[in-house]
Amino acid sequence: MRILYIDIDSLRPNHLGCYGYSRPTSPVVDSIAADGVLLTHCYASDNPCNPSRASLFSARFGILNGVVAHDGPGQNMSYAGEGHWHDPDAPMWMRSLQQHGWNTVSFSGFAQRHLSWWFTAGFTEFHGNKLPGGLENAEDVNAHAEPWLMDHAQEDNWFLHLNYWDVHHPYRAPDQYWEEMQRHGEGLAFPDDDKIRSDYEQYYGVRTARDWGPAEFNPEYYENFPRMLDSIRNREDFQVFVDGADAGMRYVDDCIGRLLELLEDKGVLKETAIIISSDHGESVGEQGMYWEHGNASEGTAHVPLIIRWPGVTDANKGGSLTGMQYHLDLPPTVADLLGYDIPKGWSGESFANALRGQEWPGRDHLIWGTGIWSFQRAVRTRSHLFIRTLHSGIYNLEPLSLFDMTSDPNQTHNLITEQPEVAATHDHLLSNWWHSYCSGPNSVRDPFQTQNDTTPDIYCSLERYLSYLERHDRPEQANDLRARRGVQLS
User: Fold this and answer.
1) Which of 136, 269, 313, 331 pairs with 3 at a CA distance of 20 to 30 A?
2) Secondary element (H or E) of residue 276
3) pLDDT tens for residues 364-393?
């Protein structure tokens, strides 16, 4: 048995052909989906990059493992165990596989990029230090991974993690991929020009339409990546970002294809389980944020998940599972498929029977959090998305939001005052979830509390952004931000 896990940073499902996208971004990934099973409602429990991979690779919610942010105390892993003693009930995912005789291998710059050295725990071979740690492209990853596969592909019981970063801004795919995408229409219908122009005027904060950059905060960024824009005024500007993300995906897809060809040449492709997913998606117009993952919108938390598992998914080849699930349900599912006991301290639940073709309703609701730029938690049911803002950062975010995900999947109309009973029901789910971890004899301190006590502003301080608004003659927005943050008006 062999497992190839392909981890594509910042990938929204709706940029893949197998999820219905009109542009040809993913012919190789689509072929894997056609030979496996696609899950339509998979969500990361903790977002974005650092919290998401912490929850997946620890197999525990961020409220338990401590990683809920990209900076400050909320970036620190709380390992299950003490001193030299690992908690056998909650091992790191890779350590669990190691203990069952697996060779666990990673090619990823993630640990360097986020100073997240806990990520290496349980990997027998960690090759991330051979990569730049943030600006590696797909060919850089393949340049290290392909020789490894040449030497080891035919061995048994390896788990290979490959992390591609090209779908994340700044978009740096080679020119031919941009040109190819531009020959295939606009791709995304939402948001339209009116929505973009309205957001440009209404919202403030970094990575909003008006202040996506701003270039004066980081001029070297725009010198090094001349395709990137520091604002999105209309659909024409918006399309630059669409083209960049899609070009990045097609570039990654080609590199995945090379790996599959190598496995085929080695005679092991049909015997290799393939899992494709992402750490998080992107907010694209949701809550005013564009091409970033700094709020608890649907776009940020929703991730693709494609699984082709020989001997398991064959009966449901090309099918899809529509039940809601967490991304961190993957570790117990893999353990289940391999015939191992699932550690009782893991937060996830196995959906292996669903992959085997049995009936599976999924979870009735999910709760996720986001911990950069702003701090929010959300409750997702089949019908609605409820968002509570714990700290608004430098944004004019609503304290509470409620969206009907059936009639308003892009989250354009806040129903919080129109459907108070529905909002209360969802808020009650959030409250019960929180108290299940943060009260009682085995309670933990919510890491969001510690983070917001010490480091509420990540990447851009309140003072810096207020000064920016004043310099650009936007006193009303500056005063609105001061009021939201309890700062005396100037």
Assistant:
1) 136
2) strand 272-277
3) 999 999 999 999 999 999 999 999 999 999
